[in-house]
Amino acid sequence: MQQLVLIRGLHGTGKSTLAREVYVPQGFVHLESDQFFTHIKTGRYAYDPTKLSEARKWCRDCVYTALSAGRNVVVSDTFHRKILVEPYQALAKRFLARLEIVTLTTEFQSSHHPNPEVNKLLREKWEEVV
Prior knowledge:
With about 130 residues, this protein is α/β, with parallel strands linked by helices. It has helices at about 15-25, 50-70, 80-95, 115-125, and strands spanning about 5-10, 30, 75, 100-105. The protein starts with a strand and ends in a 5-residue tail after the last helix. About 25% of the residues are buried.
């Protein structure tokens, strides 16, 4: 059975690291909206908050493509609100994929050096997902 794994947590909780170190070696395709902001040729990360909606759509479209090809997928993102998880739940249902949601609460240094105030705001908006 195909698998779709969502790794959620605040910035700096190790979401991307877990995806790369545990799931990618098992053959999962690793996707996240942050990849949208990474230049393909230079590898340089340039976050633009005005394009976050576009980045999230891009990520969902990539997940759709990977699931269509029969691949297992792991997505790492904050997923701090239920509305951000729901499209992935629908994709899992559409492709009859087993959905697993992993929530991380650990704290590490993020490679993107987020503003601590951003995590504070995300924590205030955090919704539990079943």
